[in-house]
Amino acid sequence: MRIDRQKVWEKCEGHCGYCGEAIAINDMQVDHIWPQNRAHQIPGLAIHDHKNLMPACRVCNNWKSTYTVELFRLQIIDQVKQLRQRSANYRMAKRYGLIEETGLKVVFYFENRQTAACEMLRETVRDVAKAQTQTELDWMRKRYGVEL
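User: That's the sequence. What structure does it adopt?
Assistant: Structure tokens below.
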């Protein structure tokens, strides 16, 4: 199945579906909401179906990699903790008030857009979240200390 890059790009009106950064169509990467390496977990899933494709900037697509959307969200949340533990530069900047930890929830760009295409993306994310195993969800809760 050939992916129509123009249609994917238009889903979020030329923005990364995750961070919201404006992206030119030739810089856009096509992300699979349900990762390709997990296609076997959902029998009958057409992995390259238009509903499973998200426009993404290079940074978000590389970071998301083979994560599901919820695991990607938790990875982003975990960055503050990792910086606090491992970066003297971060701790120094925070000490002098240059950085403030807000504790805000990670909300992706597509989750706030009120368009039919973004609603379709939200539905796909809800559907694939149901496919995550209970074991994986329990691991995520334990690892990140958050309720999903």
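Residues 69-86 form the longest helix (18 residues).
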